[in-house]
Amino acid sequence: MALNIKPLAKNVGLEVSGINLDMPLDVDTRKALQDAFMLAGILLFRRAATSSEAHLSLSRCFGELQRHPVRENWAAGYPELVDISYRPSLQGDSTVALYEVDGKRRGGWLPWHSDLRYMSKINRGGILRSIKRPSEGGRTGFVDQIAAYATLPEPLRQRIDKLHVVYQLRSDFTQEKFGKPKSLKLIDNAAALKSMAARIDQDFPPVVHPMAYVQPETGRKVLNVSPTSAIGIYEMQNSEGEALLEEIISYTLNPALAYYHDWQENDLVLWDNWRTLHCAEGVPEDCVREMQRTTIAGDYALGRRLSEFETRG
Fold first, then answer.
1. How do residues 92-116 score in pLDDT, each as one tens digit?
2. N-to-C CA span, the chain
3. Which fold does the domain 4-312 belong to in CATH?
4. Cβ proximity of 139 and 284 under 8 Å
5. CB 269 within 8 A of CB 44
């Protein structure tokens, strides 16, 4: 299979063409895709999958798949696919939330985050597929935190080298301390988060992850900070620590580093969850946006539950 691989806009990730997901991927193609994934962390496949089977086939090229813990979000007939669609008719029982962001209502809006950062084990990555494109909005943003680390001044690199961030899941994004818009209101929450709100402290205790780490395969440094779910710096639980975390996040969310994908139907985007952040700008309240995603299993083995971290520390 003759692949064509070229840089995406702003050199964030790579675009892959020449792939036929209706056919099994041969060994050489799989190796080329895996090498590109390790190099760039984000791969775009334009209009490459017209079926759930193709979506799953490509995802398995990059590792075993895991099911989302919330069964209500599984796509019908495909438990390894998660439905993250926004449909106005489902308000009150939706898999995604409706927020007012800077005065505009947005369905399916998500702030900058890495997936499962509120867990001690974070998944390897995921592949998102567009099924029905909205008439307006709906872009997904991506930031490579290897590139973000490279922008840090040396004194900041040294300050964060042995520091850790404490994270915990919140029932809605208005409760976040870092990285949220100045004006944010929850209109209607996702059904799963509504049901989980009363048991978050029991089922999702605080966890700790390093602020930076070395990518083992390449030796590159990764800025390892997710604004969403962050509570503060473990070693600096004071105003100085919060100011430092705010400063680091400002480097991570530098607009010059962000790539926003304007989806076409059957586009696929793969991201490395151990080194990237992503966000969803959402769609107007009356729009429909149909998306599904897979979750690629794995763990970088650097996260700990807070109690475990304190014991080992």
1. 455 678 999 999 999 999 999 999 9
2. 50
3. Double-stranded beta-helix (3.60.130)
4. no
5. yes
